[in-house]
Amino acid sequence: MIVYLLILLLQTVLLDAASIHTGFCVGAFWGTAQTPKTKADFLRQFTLAKNLPNVPVSFNSVRLFTSQQHNTKGTPSEAFEAAIETNTTLLLGFWASAFEYEKVALGAAFAKHGKKLADLVVGISVGNEDILRNQPDCKQAPDNKPCVEGQSPENIKKMIRETEIWLKQDFSDLFEERLPVGHTDTAAFAILDHVDYNGATIYPYWHGDKVEDANQSFFQTLDDLASRSGEIPVWITETGWPYAGPNSMAAIANSKNAQEYWKTVGCSIFGKYNTWWFQLESDSTDGPDWGIIDAQTQKPRFDLSC
Asked: Name one GO molecular function term (predicted).
């Protein structure tokens, strides 16, 4: 814990409060049928996030897993226009498996919107849990684990470097400072060198921890990540606790535990670390329900104060 606090202090000195972003991970489609979200869907979600009651900080940032409109090849996400209209900052995602199409989509969006969009982009995550999916254990797992399109660390770093060069060559006029580019992966595979940040998904629920032990589990993981990452900032690109769904060993999905995780873990990191919570409202019927908002009432499922 001492190592974590020292590194957090160093990173806090390097990052002023205005540069810390808090928000939600937002998917590109609804349900198992993968119905693409529209601009109206994104507008509603971004507005909802910015008007949550009793939250300790403003939830005015969104992490997108892809920069493409779902079920297209290179069409910009309709989330971009929604972000501009709501002044929502964006951690953009590139699917590693569709890397070239992601660049086409974002390039078209920058060409159309210019600095109105560029000023909202806080970084790019090249890939999402691709190194995990490249592990033999993951590839041999049951079919409900999407481990068919993994990438090696070397391939991810190559795509990161290509993204940096592409941004510098084609869009340097849009950014006063170099846009941070990194990768998101599970804690065991989240640390890369020669990146601007290391993005980590941290889930005591998937680790099978009781909610009473989740705070300790989370910060032990974060301590380890910060130690391994050194001077490269760690961004918490995904964490949360499900409101409903199957148990994960000792971890139980219910409203009480979702609120406990929000109070103990969330309230300890909001406004201190770049954090994108999973998630505002459930957008898939496949797996646990992680939403803090009830889809019918559009109200919080539990007290969001700290």
From this structure: glucan endo-1,3-beta-D-glucosidase activity
